[in-house]
Amino acid sequence: MATRHLSTRPAEQHHRGRFLDAALAVLADRGVAGLTVRAVAERAGASTITVYTRFGGRTGLLDALYERAYDALADELRTGPPADGGGVADLLAVALAYRRFALENPARYGLMFERAVHDYDPDPALRSGVVRTSFAELAGKISRICPPDADPRECCYLFWTAMHGLVSVELTISSQSPLEEWFLDPSDAAQEAIYRRGIEAMISGLGLRG
User: What is the pTM of this model?
Assistant: First the structure.
């Protein structure tokens, strides 16, 4: 994959991994706003020049962190709990894994899908590669149960927008002060239940069967 953070020798990749672990810790503790080269270097117990040497600068570090976030999402989607009800149940399990990833990693989710860093634009080759890889599990499950006259890519896109929209609104609301009156009970059980209903409605609307 041609990106701004080119692959290097295994030993060098190990050292880069150390800094990416530090970057993830900073991201979790301080959010995107606190994700600076200096903060990452301090968390890794190194100098800022070392971070620049490893990643070529802040943009290279963000590219590498962006890729790792998508790798983590792909792992989550692949290792979700097994479903026993056929293709539709498997698809629902993937959707629940997506929600779980977003709720457990809101800062990473923001880096992946929002302009959380206003002056950061992920490398186009990197974006194309991570999206193709990370959503392969979802695309494969949808293609197997997609109606013969439907476009699997379009179905996959519409299904993803349903997942993404529901969980993004949930994250936004949960990050704000609670309202006395709102559409939904704020409990996790109620939120998951409405998420399931939304996903099931999209499955039905797309005519996915299996």
Answer: 0.85
